[in-house]
Amino acid sequence: MIRSPLELRHLQTLIALREAGNLSRAAQWLCLTQSALSHQLRAIEDHFGLALFVRKSSPLVFTPAGKRLLALADHVVPAIEEAERDVARLAQGSGGTLRIAVECHTCFDWLMPAMDAFRQRWPDVELDIVSGFHADPIGLLHSDRADLAIVAEADPDENVEHRALFRFQIVALLAHDHPLAGRDALTADDFRHETLITYPVPDDMLDIVRQVLRPAGIEPKRRTSELTVAILQLVASRRGIATLPLWAVATYLEKRYVAARTVLCGPPRKSAPLSGELYAAMLPAFARRPYAADFVSTMRETSLLNLSQIELL
Questions:
Q1: Which of 49, 96, 156, 220 is 20 to 30 A off residue 58, Cα-Cα?
Q2: CA–CA separation, 45 and 299 (whole Å)
Q3: Which of 254, 161, 246 is nearest to 207 (CA)?
Q4: Which biological process terms from the Gene Ontology are attached to this UniProt entry (predicted)?
């Protein structure tokens, strides 16, 4: 009998590699370093004496051996995951609720695909988004008006658990004929005499203010709008400049509706591109429910597949 080195994690790795399209993104999906993932794949290839995929191929191309193991993975991994969910339902009873609160105006672009995928996995769990924008989503958890909150900071709170989602770049948006469009990157001082267009939220929830403008003591003129498309229309009309997540405006940039530039934050010699982070916050008791943990995993996986320029935390 041939002793196979194949384990469930190897099959999960092959699926992640196919879905993510390259080693780097697959490693993020699996919460591994790229080196560890390469070592794992090489060990399987060494055992069988065959390559599983074509190195440096884009899009990724699997060899006949890789395709055969992928076929096995597609049969085994979903069956095991479904069995685990069934056992979890037996342990806790069928059904449940998952009320989601968000403090991010652009969250819906990636949250809705995650919810659609989750419904297929947990059809008995009632999903709902707490209506309206909430400046204090953590307060909704403590008052039992929400079960999970999407937040931009993992503030220390002994009664709340934070699960990391992803990091993303925040870019400055300008009209193509704006004088600053000739720059490769903007610094805090470039905003001094501009009108900053933002969502109508507290300054503590705006990364451009917290990370860039406030440390530099700069307070530009302000204008607000509830809708992303309205903000971009104002930018295109030279009414001001804005800063938004790169993934939230990727479609508009592809159509050249506005221009995007890097925003630098931090001391001059240690400056880095402005970025933001997102976390899922839950009360400890709710976080222990199997479907809560699975929803966090689903958000991470669908975001990695659907959003450009993000990095899983």
A1: 49
A2: 31
A3: 246
A4: methionine biosynthetic process
Q: Enter the pTM of the model.
A: 0.77
- Of 273, 265, 262, 258, which Cα lies nearest the Cα of 178? 258
Cis-peptide into 59, omega within 30 deg: yes
What is the tens place of the pLDDT at every residue in 243-263?
A: 999 988 988 999 999 999 999
pLDDT tens string 7-25: 888 888 888 888 888 888 8
**Topology of domain 8-90, per CATH?**
Arc Repressor Mutant, subunit A (1.10.10)
Beta bridge partners of 99: 128
HSE, CB side, 13 Å, CA atoms: give it for residue 163. 20
**Is it true that 94-165+276-312 and 167-275 share their CATH fold?**
yes
Report the distance separating Cα 105 and Cα 270, nearest Å.
Answer: 30
232, two tokens: 């971009």
Q: Which tokens hold the place of 294?
A: 């699975």
Q: Per CATH, is 167-275 categorized as 2.170.150.20?
A: no
Listed in sequence order, the DSSP H helices in the chain are 8-20, 23-30, 34-48, 64-92, 108-121, 137-142, 207, 214-216, 228-236, 250-254, 284-287, 290-306
The number of angstroms, rounded, from the C-alpha of 105 to the middle of its chain's C-alpha atoms is 14
Does the structure show a pLDDT above 60 at 2? no
Pairing of strands 241-245, 310-312: unpaired
* Coarse DSSP helix, strand, coil percentages of the chain, rounded to the nearest 5 percent: 45, 20, 30
Q: Structure tokens of 27?
A: 């490693």
Give residue-wise pLDDT tens across range 55-75. Answer: 888 788 899 998 999 899 888
Residue 276 has pLDDT above 70, yes or no: yes
Beta-bridge partner residues of 53: 62
